[in-house]
Write a structure and sequence with these properties.
Layout (H helix, E strand, L loop, with lengths): L2 H5 L22 E8 L8 H17 L8 E8 L3 H13 L5 E4 L3 H7 L3 H4 L2 E4 L16 E3 L4 H15 L3 E7 L2 H16 L3 E8 L7 H7 L5 E4 L3 H13 L8 E5 L7 H4 L7 E4 L8 H14 L5 H20 L4 H8 L3 E4 L2 E5 L11 E8 L5 E9 L16
Parallel strand pairs: 1-2, 1-3, 3-4, 4-5, 6-7, 6-8, 8-9, 9-10
Antiparallel strand pairs: 10-13, 11-12, 13-14
Helix pairs in contact: 2-11, 2-12, 3-4, 6-7, 12-13
Length: about 400
């Protein structure tokens, strides 16, 4: 029986923002702070992040919330810099009274926010950043992550690199923390397989003219890795198509590039790209199918992988609150460490105690022309987290 059937229609109050209050939560709704970006290329998808979080909260509230309390999303937008993200998170805690931070946090934002978590006395469950640094020196007792680190993405890509026989690669990634992290991980993978990276380019966020980058990428190599996101990714794909760039390579891999919520906008520009994909609505499991159905009933659209990651973050937090019987950050943190959680990614998914990372599945999918002439994904591989996650980094100190 679905959450909605058991609990009735979701109350409109689940979507309303609470008036800010400068005190810690002890009763009433559990306030969850959501960071979004309102300028630059990432602003395009801020509304989707907001809708995804509020829909996840509504689904869980219809199932009783956590320990008899309902979730309430408090959104705080900022201009997209790390300093602005820290300031917005501080406002959410000090004025909004939130006990958990989620949101549209780039890797550079997460790395800037993590050192502030002790003073803020708040938990941060990251469903967005992918930098591998957050598994090592960038970790923190109050920091948990359900999104997929680059070390995991590149481990899954290993099979494709091996089977393709591609030895020479060109890379283009964004010129900030996440892009440099992915570049480092992928270069290490290529080197371990006896290959070489010919071009390793970094494009500033907000680049609109990729002509010079495409010219450099056109120099001989058999494989291409693209990790340009949001509107940057769309601009690059369109211009790459005009220059016939992808036709020059035996294999084009994408990371955060040809994603599900950009698929229609990309059109034919990304056909054939094999993209890392952490989740799709078609993944097996009754829990996942129920989530997709209820999300569609509330949001009037299909969920994207970003929605699923937000849902996993809230499911994790709910499990911690229920076990702790409290929203006190120290108690929830302790409850989450090593906890096996039933969620949309499967049953008994572990929040690893050593580094606070959710050991979850990950997949690779190729963009093809689907029914009705619309782009679609064909899953090429889905592997469990136990086969993908590296051992805990000794630099990570969460005790």
């Amino acid at each position: 029986m679905s959450y909605l059937t058991r609990r009735g229609a979701v109350a409109a109050a689940a979507f309303a923002l609470a008036a800010p209050r400068a005190f810690a939560q002890a009763s009433g709704p559990i306030k969850v702070g959501l960071l979004t970006i309102d300028s630059g290329p990432f602003a395009t998808y801020a509304n989707l992040i907001d809708q995804g979080a509020k829909t996840a909260a509504a689904i869980l509230n219809a199932d009783g919330g956590a320990a008899g309390r309902k979730f309430e999303i408090v959104t705080q937008a900022h201009n997209g810099t790390p300093a602005a993200a820290v300031a917005a998170a501080t406002r959410l805690v000090q004025q909004g009274g939130v006990s958990l931070i989620l949101g549209q946090t780039l890797s550079s934002h997460s790395l800037a926010l993590v050192p502030k978590l002790t003073d803020l006395n708040v938990l941060f469950i990251d469903h967005y950043a992918e930098s591998t640094d957050l598994m090592g020196k960038g970790c923190h007792p109050n920091y948990f992550r359900v999104s997929t680190p680059h070390a995991v993405t590149t481990k899954l890509m290993e099979d494709f690199v091996k089977s393709s026989g591609v030895k020479s690669w060109n890379l283009i990634t964004p010129d900030y923390a996440s892009g440099h992290s992915l570049s480092k991980s992928f270069q290490a993978l290529v080197g371990s397989l006896g290959g070489t990276v010919q071009q390793n380019l970094f494009a500033p966020i907000g680049t609109s003219d990729f002509g010079s980058y495409i010219s450099q990428l056109s120099k001989p190599a058999d494989g291409l890795l693209v990790a340009l996101f949001m509107s940057d990714g769309q601009s690059f794909a369109k211009q790459a198509k005009q220059f016939g760039l992808f036709d020059k390579f035996k294999l084009v891999l994408g990371a955060g590039f040809a994603t599900d919520f950009q698929l229609e906008a990309h059109g034919d520009n990304v056909l054939g790209v094999v993209n890392s994909l952490s989740w799709t609505p078609e993944l097996p499991g009754e829990r996942n199918a129920r989530y997709v159905k209820e999300f569609e009933q509330i949001a009037k659209r299909r969920p994207f992988y970003t929605d699923a990651d937000i849902m996993a973050a809230l499911e994790s937090y709910r499990a911690g609150v229920v076990k702790a019987g409290s929203t006190d950050p120290a108690k929830v943190r302790k409850a989450l460490e090593g906890l096996k959680i039933d969620m949309i990614f499967g049953s008994a998914v572990e929040m690893r105690a050593a580094d606070h990372h959710l050991i979850r599945q990950h997949g690779m999918a190729q963009v093809v022309k689907g029914a009705g002439g619309r782009n679609a994904f064909v899953m090429k591989a889905v592997k469990p987290g136990a086969e993908l996650y590296p051992a805990p980094n000794p630099e990570c100190k969460v005790a």
